[in-house]
Specification:
Layout (H helix, E strand, L loop, with lengths): L6 H7 L2 E3 L2 E3 L14 H10 L24 E4 L23 H11 L3 E6 L7 H12 L6 E9 L10 E9 L13 E2 L10 E2 L3 H5 L70 H7 L12 H10 L3 H18 L1 H7 L4 H12 L4 H12 L5 E2 L10 E3 L4 E6 L26 H24 L3 E6 H6 L1 H15 L13
Parallel strand pairs: 3-4, 7-8, 11-12
Antiparallel strand pairs: 1-2, 4-6, 5-6, 9-10, 10-11
Helix pairs in contact: 1-8, 3-4, 8-12, 11-14
Length: 490
């Protein structure tokens, strides 16, 4: 819904390159898309191999679309009446009431999860967001559990300070909680000791496009499209702003007249110029392969209204992981074990204590180690922690974390998926689990924690040896204040 030029849809589908980084193809397909803006539809159809309807969303009968099973509903509600610099019509405006039609779609299609993106102004006043949230959650079936996430696109690799509110709703009959994607970048001024990459800057995004002779010399599509609006530098309330080469860009807005920032470089004649359509697209997270076959005025507008594809790709991967946890039928097909063993293991997982976890816990207790189990508030939710010395222990299932495939009789890592239904889906899911394990490790270590990841097969083979590894790690990490450790640990 409200697909715009397709930035959010491209993020879900993936399969593009941006700033020399590949964003993998994800197994999503677009069942239906709609936007009332003809220029948005022109750009959408030129870049995405999907049809887009031109219906007035208020007149769409969702129950008549015959779309089949829908996993995800994505809605980029129009933000003009919520934006702090906009008309601020809020819920009293026609556009401000469009969220009610998202609820109509939820009733008709019953997707497992939905995601709504908007500007921070949707929270001011707070009761406005509360009204929208109550409507989307629903009082009748299907009902949804809602979480509100406040994000900055710069944290996800977009070279732009663009703060947004993301509302995620999961259908109430599905119990697994959705976890937002972890940030991949951080403000280097605020996180000197982090292992995350520094924010991408305007220079990172634009420098290779620069030509002192003017944008028309570039062979990149849409680089010749640029507004020729007057540049004003001497009026405090109307002065055009220049990008800082070493900082992310400010928010790219949809209004082109007088609101397109100036490049951080001077042209050959010493003058400044406004950013081109392609440069704005770069700052908004669009790959160069995504073209805007409309006027420069509409190009700026479509980019400013879009959801950054790079941002939505990270959220789509988290949604993909969440969807995988719901498909218990497929999950039972995955394990090379017999069905009875799989059933016992899945029951143990639901009880927050697998066979390997219990074996390690017993061995650690016998070794005099006193731990906390499944603490809240730490990245990745470690299985056991020793807070006084900041040691976190994870018990990793062999299959789910891509571990010990040789011990399970496979010649290569990929071979374990060959006889599994939807093998590409699960190969992607397990790879993402492994990537998340690494992200969690970096996040914990950046806060001073030592991380131990012990494979299920290692624990079951020799739990005493694994407990000794933990004990020695705790011993070596001990500090002058060791509250909570036993005499043996000291």
């Amino acid at each position: 819904m409200f697909a715009g030029c397709g930035g959010g849809d491209l993020g879900f589908k993936g399969g593009f390159a941006y700033l020399r980084e590949d964003y993998e193809r994800l197994p999503f397909s677009i069942s239906w898309a709609n936007d009332i803006d003809p220029f948005a539809r022109t750009v959408y159809t030129a870049n995405l191999n999907d049809e887009i309807a031109d219906s007035d969303i208020t007149a769409v009968k969702f129950e008549s679309l015959e779309l089949g099973t829908i996993d995800v509903l994505l809605a980029g509600l129009p933000c003009q009446d919520f934006a702090m610099l906009g008309p601020r019509g809020g819920l009293h405006s026609k556009r401000g009431q469009l969220y009610k039609h998202v609820r109509r779609a939820l009733r008709a299609l019953s997707p497992r999860i939905f995601i709504v993106e908007n500007v921070p102004g949707i929270e001011h006043p707070p009761k406005m967001l509360g009204t929208i949230a109550r409507c989307l959650a629903g009082r009748t079936s299907p009902r949804y559990h809602l979480k509100v996430h406040r994000i900055n696109t710069a944290d996800y690799g977009v070279p732009q300070i663009r703060k947004r509110v993301v509302i995620v709703g999961t259908r109430s009959d599905l119990t697994t909680e959705f976890e937002e994607p972890m940030a991949v970048c951080a403000d280097p001024k605020q996180a000197d000791d982090t292992n995350l990459r520094p924010w991408r800057t305007a220079k990172d995004a634009l420098d290779d496009l620069w030509s002192g002779d003017g944008p028309e010399t570039s062979a990149v599509a849409d680089q010749s499209k640029v507004t020729h609006a007057a540049i004003i530098l001497d009026k405090p309330k109307r002065s055009d702003k220049r990008l800082d080469a070493d900082e992310p860009a400010p928010t790219i807005r949809a209004e082109h007249h007088g609101h397109v920032e100036l490049h951080y470089r001077r042209q050959a004649d010493g003058s400044f110029r406004h950013l081109t359509v392609r440069e704005c697209a770069r700052l908004q997270g669009f790959p160069d392969s995504f073209e805007f076959p409309v006027s420069f005025t509409q190009g700026y507008r479509q980019i400013g209204n879009a959801i950054p594809p790079v941002l939505m790709h990270h959220w789509a991967k988290s949604i993909l992981r969440w969807l995988g946890t719901q498909d218990t039928v497929e999950a039972r097909r995955l394990s090379p074990r017999d069905p009875a063993t799989t059933s016992r293991i899945m029951s143990a997982v639901r009880n927050r204590g697998s066979r390997a976890e219990l074996a390690l816990a017993k061995a650690m207790w016998s070794a005099g180690l006193r731990y906390r189990k499944h603490p809240r508030g730490l990245p990745g939710k470690p299985d056991y922690v020793f807070p006084s010395v900041k040691v976190a222990v994870f018990c990793d299932g062999d299959f789910w974390h891509g571990r010990s495939w040789r011990l399970r009789g496979f010649r290569t890592w990929d071979e374990q998926f060959d006889r599994i239904a939807r093998s590409d889906f699960w190969r992607l899911k397990i790879r993402r689990n492994m990537e998340r394990d690494e992200e969690v490790r970096r996040a914990l270590e950046s806060s001073g924690w030592t991380v131990l990841r012990i494979a299920e097969s290692e624990i079951l083979d020799d739990p005493t040896k694994c407990a000794e590894t933990v004990r020695m790690t705790v011993f070596n990490r001990r500090t002058p204040v060791r509250a909570g450790l036993s005499d043996r640990d000291r």
